[in-house]
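During the second half of the funding period, the structural biology subgroup turned its attention to how the target accommodates small molecules. The most pressing case was BV8, which had performed well in the primary screen but for which no bound structure existed. We therefore specified the complex as follows and requested a full 3D prediction, including the ligand pose.
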Amino acid sequence: MKIPEKLVAQLAAAKSVTVLTGAGVSAESGVPTFREAQTGLWEKFKPEELATPRAFRRNPKLVWEWYAWRRELVAKASPNPGHLALVEWEQLFPQFQLITQNVDGLHQRAGSKNVIELHGNITRTKCFDENRVVSSWADTSDVPPKCPHCGGWLRPDVVWFEEAMPELEMELATQASRTCELFLSVGTSTIVYPAASLPYLSLKQGATVVEVNPSPTPLTNEAHFILPSAAGTALPALVAVIKAARGI
Ligand code: BV8
């Protein structure tokens, strides 16, 4: 793929880089994105209708089973070349911050050390009432299972729509977007806020903003560079050109 010379030069010289990823970076691992139609059993539901506290209160069994299905998909998935390239990115820049909207934990499984998970992690479970993570519970026929401490429902440790964002993660992500020289937005439709506000914070402070996405998004017209390509192709290609430009 063709990478603009100016972008190569900026990447080769960059000291601080921030990357925001969305579901698109896991698409090549076989994890369906939010905008793709749900498959099979879940075809008739929209994620926005299941990933909310209201949906859980209304039908906890349905929502728990949707996450159980997604957890199985994620368990079977492996990190793809896009995830693996971002592990290398961590070594290429003195200051590097990876921020993800994904809940699949594939960045960590690929080897990324310092990942800000804005929307939680589907492999962690917490009590709906006490809001604290639970690592084990009685293996009964209850669906959802019950909290061993208070008997309330257990739920996935993710941020649902219309739930507040994790304060620390949001603060760190905002800081990394406000201070970087270069911001890369990879595989996200840039629709869900406040995560989608991060590239605009970078634009506002004068960073170079790059979008990696085979399809256009609301960010496309404002980004400085667009790589209309899959993450699994673009991210390894960027590693190669940075190393070549630096003679390593
Ligand atoms: C909040 C975890 C305030 C769960 C997710 C009313 C009340 C309160 C808030 C709101 C409201 N109305 C609207 C809001 C704001 C709302 C929002 O933004 N709604 C949207 C629908 C408009 N936001 C919230 O509710 C947030 N909280 O605002 O709090 C508050 C304050 C105090 C008290 C109460 C509330 C919380 C949002 C978090 C939602 N949780 N995930 C779960 O996973 O089940 S969001 C979920 O969708 C994902 O995590 C992701 O973040 C998000 C967007 O998905 P993307 O990652 O972008 O993926 P998508 O499928 O959309 O796109 C994939 C892209 O990849 C595409 O562009 C495609 O072209 C590209 N692609 C495909 N293949 C590839 C590729 N790219 C590269 N390579 C490829 N191979």
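Two results from this model are relevant to the next phase. The beta strands are 16-21, 95-100, 115-117, 120-127, 154-158, 182-186, 208-212, 225-227. The longest helix spans residues 60-76.
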